[in-house]
Design goal:
With about 575 residues, the chain is of the alpha/beta class. It has a domain at about 495-575: Immunoglobulin-like, CATH 2.60.40. About 30% of the residues lie in helices and about 20% in strands. A hairpin with a 6-residue loop joins strand 20 and strand 21. Keywords: Glycosyltransferase, Transferase.
Length: about 575
């Protein structure tokens, strides 16, 4: 008797492990996941999201209260302030770790005791869709697996990827300037382990199928603890081969398909998101044929939108938007402008000229930002990301520097993001309009710390209750805009989107609901000058009644025009 699930899994495994008994390996994976081989296939092209979905990105300990576990404090803050605002919460790595603020995991199956425990994680997962990191490319050099690697015993003996210093590794794509190979003393003598990101983050060896089986077990545990959205961290680097770029290799894409197959058969409502901070065309490949990632990060959006708002020129943002393919049903984009990392510069390759990139970097530098670098194949160091708090990134323009439009410019950026095709994701420090934390950078010695502040709950509550505080103004306005967005069928992540042509200083696009009963024309003045827009240029249907969802303004004369103040946005709709 043939079983569709097992047959499909075997065919995928044969691409990655052609010399192994893939029928046996498939059986091991299904058993580890608790899946019978005759498990029915889940519905194809199922959208596990709608217009009400909004993601919050936060560390477990971003909000703290003395004498209380941070996960408990976070849950209380979510319940008190964001229960009607966000649907999903991405808690950045909450496991025991040795460096990189959680991304050098020591134990995948434990919660960092200083944050709380699995019960605290599960409690949040009962009230919100819970998103967690599967830090799948590398593991801490202080983990038990790596200690076993050095002792040459299992589990761990062959779990980490080894390289040879004599190999030609010049083609390998690097996101850092640190050495790729690091020498390690083991019971068998010196070995060289592959470290894409840092000496403390040792790359795992998926050429050993036992590593894949281990991760199947980890995924099952996460699902049992309430995780429903999996962020595959740094997944583009998963498979390595000396003599190649060791990024985006076929085996990597096939492994993502395997993980998706296992996850969605266990929990059909589960979602995989790939984190691939690379040029736009490369990033899009992670949709596969709607059989890899359900969702991909829109990595080009942050630098392009910031560039648009500091230059008052939307040509590059508009060109990019027109070139983006509509996501197939069952897939969509994750739109964000800020995250725990910096503003990636690689996603601007082919979109901004070198001169424009440098102007962006120089402007961010003048607003207090820092620049991280990566090492290219020819040994040069190139800007990899700009580290800066988003509120400070938008404090002025490239031409004039800091000005008095910071708050309006910041709100405009998020109004654009909220309306675009895809699911919007807010880094907690954007919702709170947190500024550059230069003191934290000095304390940790890490540039990314500039945007990883921690709030004491009482101080945060005081700021949010103060109507004169910019934190309060931003928080309440973004909450208001999110509440509007969540009620509009035209803002479904898969609803139709077309780019409008309204000049260089006005960025606009049209969204239409999947039932075609609602249109929203999203129009944004991305400059510091007043803009006049003729309604005839927007082509509003004359038999419909139109109003602005943001201000409540009704449009009575379609032959007239609308006036937009600097950085003002309107969402014109034919359905209240």
């Amino acid at each position: 008797m043939t079983h569709p699930l097992k047959t499909k899994l075997v065919s995928m495994l044969e691409v990655v492990y052609p010399s192994l008994d893939c029928d046996y390996l498939a059986g091991q994976l299904l058993e580890t996941m608790g899946l019978p081989p005759d498990q029915p296939l889940p519905p194809a092209h199922q959208n596990n999201w709608d217009e009400s979905d909004v993601v919050l990105i936060t560390y477990a300990d971003t909000v703290q209260k003395e004498g209380e576990k941070p996960l408990v404090t976070l849950h209380q803050f979510l319940e008190d302030c964001l229960a009607d605002t966000v649907s999903s919460v991405h808690i950045l790595p909450f496991f025991p770790f040795s460096s990189d603020d959680g991304f050098a995991v020591m134990d995948y199956l434990a919660v960092n005791e200083s944050h709380g425990d699995w019960e605290d994680i599960e409690a949040i997962g009962k009230d919100f869709k819970l998103m967690a990191d599967l830090v799948i490319n590398h593991m801490s050099s202080r983990s038990r697996w790596f200690e076993n690697f050095k002792k040459r015993v299992d589990p761990g003996k062959d779990y980490f990827f080894e390289g040879n210093p004599k190999d030609d590794l010049s083609a390998v794509v690097r996101p850092r300037t640190s050495p790729l190979l690091n020498a390690v003393q083991t019971e068998d003598g010196e070995r060289h382990v592959w470290c894409t990101f840092s000496e403390d983050q040792v790359d795992l060896n998926f050429a050993n199928p036992q590593v894949l089986i281990e991760f199947a077990g980890i995924i099952r545990k996460y699902l049992e603890h309430g995780v429903i959205i999996f962020r595959l961290d740094a997944v583009a680097f998963l498979w390595k081969e000396p003599g190649t770029p060791s990024i985006h290799l076929q085996q990597t894409h096939e492994l993502i398909k395997i993980l998706r197959l296992l996850i969605e058969h266990h929990s059909p409502e589960a979602v995989i998101i790939t984190e691939t901070n690379v040029p736009n065309r490369e990033n899009l490949t992670y949709f596969g044929n709607a059989n890899e990632a359900h969702v991909i990060y829109n990595f080009s959006l942050p630098p392009l939108l910031i560039n648009t708002l500091i230059t008052g020129d939307c040509r590059h943002l508009k060109t990019w938007l027109m070139s983006m393919p509509p996501a197939q049903m069952g897939t969509t984009y994750l739109n964000f402008i800020a995250s725990h990392d910096g503003i990636g510069m690689r996603p601007t390759d082919g979109l901004l000229s070198e001169e424009e990139k440098q102007r962006l970097i120089n402007t961010m530098d003048s607003f207090g930002g820092k620049v991280s670098y990566r090492r290219t194949a020819d040994g040069r160091d190139q800007p990899y990301e700009v580290n800066i708090a988003l509120y400070d990134a938008l404090k002025g323009t490239a031409e004039s520097g800091a000005d008095h439009w910071q708050l309006q410019r910041f709100i405009c950026a998020h109004t654009v993001m909220l309306a675009l095709e895809g699911i919007p994701a807010f880094y907690i420090h954007s919702l709170l309009a947190t500024e550059n934390d230069l003191e934290r950078v000095e304390h940790t010695g890490r540039l990314r710390s500039i945007n990883r502040s921690q709030w004491q709950l009482d101080a945060l509550e005081e700021e949010l209750e103060n109507p004169l505080s910019h934190h309060s103004k931003v928080f309440h306005e973004l909450n208001r805009l999110i509440a509007i967005r969540r009620k509009q069928p035209a803002f479904h992540p898969n609803a139709t989107q077309f780019t409008l042509h309204l000049g260089l200083q006005v960025f606009g696009f049209w969204r239409q609901s999947m039932r075609r009963d609602q249109s929203v024309f999203c129009i944004h003045n991305i400059s510091d000058e007043v803009q006049q827009i003729a309604l005839s240029d927007i082509n509003l249907i004359g038999t419909d009644h139109w109003l602005d969802l943001i201000s409540g303004m009704k449009i009575d004369d379609l032959s007239g025009s609308i006036t937009l103040k600097p950085y003002q946005s309107v969402w014109l709709t034919n359905r209240e």
